[in-house]
Amino acid sequence: MEATQSLLSIKGLSKNFGGVRALDGLDLEVRRNRIMGLIGPNGSGKTTFFNVVTGIYPASAGSVVLEGEDITSFSPQRVYRRGVARTFQRSRLLLPLSILDNITLGDHSRVNNGLMFNLFRRKALTREFERSLEKARELIGIFDPELASNIFDPVETLPMISRRRIEICRALIGHPKLLLLDEPSAGMTHDETFRLIDDILEIKEKIEDLTIIIIEHEMTVMERITDHCAVLNFGEKICEGSYQEVAGDPQVQEAYLGV
Ligand code: ADP
């Protein structure tokens, strides 16, 4: 596939919560294989955008088209099956469970209702488990080989950066084409954040045909990681371009600094 092709096409997307217009006629094209940054002050609609794209909230108007297919009214499960996965600002890990369990919880393809599977359930389950274990080890190994060799350890003993890595692996285990990262630096130190950003860049190198949209308040992260940025304010796109272009835009400075 061409790197310049559009993967996600957003047209006139709006989302109202009562009188609040969280998204207001948003237009956005996300090209395949890019890392796109979504920038904007608090309350500008960034997380709502992720929630509408992933089917968590229905759109009030407009469309979300993924590889030519209109997915605007799809359920979260259908959106996931079409290849869109995400992480959340607040950790959703099940802390007493193992690294393996937490990663494979994201592998919805494991739910198998096939006749052959059920007839030979025991053998099939063992095969499924081995397949999941291998996939999870391979993914977490890209981030951190030590986590891969301690995959049966509970998550609760791990530092924040390891937990974030596990969350990203959970999102990646179903082989998405589009990964939505909602503030991966939340709750981490500056040093941890930059280690995680390097991890994400490495993952991007190793996984073919992966497009990422990232929401992040830490502007140095955006500068380092993104190929392209879009800036939202009051649910509208006010500017887009390279990080340098948007950071120098007077409208963006006004939205952030009120100057
Ligand atoms: P951001 O992620 O840019 O900080 P949000 O998408 O979280 O912004 O919020 C955009 C606007 O929508 C805010 O005014 C917020 O209060 C409102 N909003 C978001 N989710 C809800 C909800 N579930 N119910 C009511 N209002 C919401």
Summarize the structure.
This protein has 259 residues and is of the alpha/beta class. The protein has helices at 46-53, 76-81, 99-104, 115-119, 121-143, 145-149, 160-172, 190-206, 219-225, 243-247, 250-257; strands at 6-17, 20-31, 35-39, 61-66, 69-70, 84-86, 178-182, 211-215, 228-233, 236-241.
List the defining traits of the structure above:
259 residues; alpha/beta; Rossmann fold; 2 domains; 6-stranded mixed beta sheet; 4-stranded antiparallel beta sheet; 10 strands; binds adenosine-5'-diphosphate
Oligomer: single chain
Task: Write down the domain tally.
Answer: 2
| Helicity, as a percent range | 25-40%
Topology, number of strands? 10
What's the order of the H and E elements? Answer: EEEHEEHEHHHHHEHEHEEHH
Principal-axes shape call: globular
CATH class category of the largest domain: Alpha Beta
Q: What's the architecture of the largest domain in CATH terms?
A: 3-Layer(aba) Sandwich
Count of alpha and pi helical runs: 11
Straight-line N-to-C gap: 43 Å
Strand content: 15-25%
Structural class: alpha/beta
Pfam family, one: BCA_ABC_TP_C
InterPro entries: AAA+_ATPase, ABC_AA/LPS_Transport, ABC_transporter-like_ATP-bd, BCA_ABC_TP_C, P-loop_NTPase
Keywords: ATP-binding, Nucleotide-binding, Transport
Domain ABC transporter: 8-259
